[in-house]
Amino acid sequence: MVNFKTSGATDALRRACPELRLVTEAGVLASHGRDWTRFREPAPCAVAFPKSVQQVCELVACASAERIPLVPSGGRTGLSGGAVAAHGEVVVSFDRMRRVLDFDPIDRTVTVEAGVVTAAVQELARTRNLYYPVSFASEGSSQIGGNVATNAGGIRVLRYGLTREQVAGLKVVTGRGEVLECNRGLVKNASGYDLRHLFIGSEGTLGLVVEATLRLTDPPLPSKVMLLGVGGMDALMNVFDTLRADLALTAFEFFTDRALHYVRAGLGLPKPLDTACPLYVIAEFDCPTGAEEDRAMASFERCVQQNWLLDGVISQNDRQVAELWRYREGISESISHFPPYKNDLSVTISRVPEFLQRMDELVDEICPDFEVVWYGHIGDGNLHMNILKPGAMELSEFESRSHEISEKTYALTQSIGGSISAEHGIGLLKRPWLNRAHSAAEIEMMQGIKNVFDPAGIFNPGKLL
Amino acid sequence: MKILVGIKRVVDYNVRVRVLPDGSGVDTDGVKMSVNPFDEIALEEALRIKEAGKAEEVIVVSVGGDECQQQLRTGLAMGADRAIQVKTGESLQPLSVARAFLKIIEREQPGLVILGKQAIDDDNSQTGQMLAALWDRPQATFASKLTLSDGSATVVREVDIGLETIEIDLPAVVTVDLRLNEPRFVKLPDIMKAKRKPLDVVPLEDLDVGADSNLSVTKFAPPAQRAKGIMVEDAAQLVQELKNRGLV
After folding, report:
1. A371-377: strand order across its sheet
2. Domain span holding position A67
3. CATH architecture group of domain B2-219
4. pLDDT tens digit string along B76-110?
5. Do B32 and A318 touch (CB under 8 A)?
6. Shortest Cα distance from A270 to chain B (angstroms)?
7. Is the whole-model pTM more than 0.95?
8. Interface of B with A (CB under 8 A)
C-alpha cells in the first residue's frame, strides 16, 4: 500500500500506546481481518482492542503521525468488505468497548459504547418496556458502531426508518485526533451543519465512532404475520398497495420460489402453503384486536378475487410469528455456502416491477448458467440479488463473471435512478462502481469531506472512495 | 367417533409477563393472548386423527368469557368442526372446569377427549386427571405419541425416567406433551370458513356446575431479581473475585 506504514506499525503503536492491547496472533488476524465477505484473504498486521475513548485517541494520534492505515471493525457481519483488512492494516476492534453508559427514561435514550451488540440494545430496551426497532438477520453479532458506520437498515425500516433515524448523538474520534460530540441527544438542533449525519453511513472513512446515543420508542403493538403466495410481479405491487391501505404494516418482504427452495432445504422447513407460487410475501402488521384481523381477512379476500394472491397463512401466536419469519430471515444463511455474489440494490418503490422485469431479461441474456436468488424489502424498494456460484466454478472466475454482471446491473440501476447499494454499503466490493451511484462532482465533494476529517487518509483506505 | 378438545385462552408464550403493581394479578391490558400451546398441540393431534379417517368430528370447548371466542375461532380455523363456549365471568379452578367438561361430555358422547397437559398461565396440570376421575374413564397423561386402534389407544408418555408406553380403552382422556406434534399454520381462506362454523354458547349456570372454589389467590409477585454480574478481565481476577465471595 503506497505511502502507508505497515512494516513496523505494531512496534510504533506499542511504543506510543503501551496500555493498548495489540494482538498479532494468526487466529485473531484471520478472524478480525474480514467480515462476512469471502473474496479477499485477511492480512492485517495487528488487531488493536482499545478499552476507552482515551486509548482510541492515543491510537489515532500515533497512526496519524506515522501514517498507519486503520480498519475499523465491529461485529464483522458486513457484506461489502468494509471491514476487510487485506493489506497489512491495523484493525481497530471495539470488542472491548461494550459498556452501556447511560439510560434516560425521560429522554428515552440509551448511550452505549461502539462495541455493544445490536441485540443487546434491543434487549435493554425491552427490559425498560421500550423498543429499539433496528432489526436484521445478524443483529446477534453486529455492533452499534458498525450499524452507525453503515446506516444499517433491516426488516422494520418500513415503519421505523434506518439507523440514522435512531441516532440522537455520536461521539467520534477524527483523524486529527479531536473528539467530536455530535448533537448530544438533542431532538431539535438547528445550529448549522449536523456532522452526526456525515458519520452515519461513512463506512469508517471519516472517523471512529466510539459512543452512540440511541432513541428508543414505544414497544410495538401485538402483531401478526401473514405468509402470502403471490401470482406475479405486478400483482406483488398491487398486494402491497392494498395491504398498506388496509393495515398498519410493520414489514413487507418478498422472496422468490427459488429462495423458498433453498431456505426450506437449508433449514429443514415444511412447505408453508399448499399452492406453489412464483413469489411469496411476509407481511407483518399491528393486530391488537380482532378488528385488525378482520380487516386483514377482507384485504386478503379482495386480493384473491383479483387473482393477485393465490394462497396464504397467518400466525396464531408469537411462536408462529417467529416460525414464519424464518422463511425470509433464513434465506441469506441457507445460500451462504455457495458462496453468493451479493448485490443490494434500491429503486423507487413504483419502479420495482419494471426493474425486476428488466433484470430478469438481463440475467437471461448474460448469465443463463447462473442461478439468481431474489429477496428483499419491497416496502423500501430494496432488492437483494444473490448470484450463486456454480459448484464446479473457481472462485476467481466466479468473481470476474460476477463483476461483468454487476457492471450491467449497475448501469441498468443507474438508468432508472436507483442506487447500487441500498443498505450494505460500498466498502471494498462496490468501490469500482461508485460512479454509478454518484456524479463526478459529488464524488469530488465526498473526497473533500474525507480530507477535512481524515487529512492523513488513515481511516479505511481503499474503501468507499 | 367424536373428539373433544379443550382450549384455554392464555397470555402468549412469548410475552414477558408483568405483575400488576398492587399484586392482584398480571397485566393483560393490550397483551397478546393466544391458545394455550399444549392445547394447540392437542387440537393438531385431533385434526390429524380426523384426517386419517379415524374420527368424524372435532369439537373445541373453552370455559370463559366472550373473549375466549377468539381462541375458539382459531381452533375452528385450524380445522375443528364446531365450538362450544361454556360461558362464565368467573375465573374457575381446575375442578370446576373438569365438572363443566363432564357435562359437555355427557351431551356430546365423544370417543376421545384430548387436552393440553397443563395451561402455561397457572401450570396446574389437574383438569385432565380430575376429568378422567369424574368421568370414570382411563387417562393417559403427558402423551408424546398417540396411536388409535379399535376401541383402544396406545400412548407413549413422557415420564421422569424416560418414555412409558401404555394401552388404554376408549373413551378416555389424553393430555398431551410438547413433542407430540408441530401445530399447523392457519390458512387464511380457512379463517373465513371458520366464521360460518357453529359456535354454541352454554352458560355455566345451565350446566349446574358451581364456580365456587376452596382456593383464593392472595398475592402475585414477580421472581426476585438476580444480582447483576460483573465482567472480569482475566482468569486471575476471576479467581480473586471467587475468593472474595468465599466460593473457592
Report:
1. A340-346, A382-388, A371-377, A249-256, A279-286, A223-230, A309-314, B186-187
2. 9-96
3. 3-Layer(aba) Sandwich (3.40)
4. 999 999 999 999 998 889 999 999 999 999 999 99
5. yes
6. 10
7. no
8. 12-16, 18, 30-32, 34-35, 37, 40, 70, 74, 77-78, 182, 185-189, 191-192
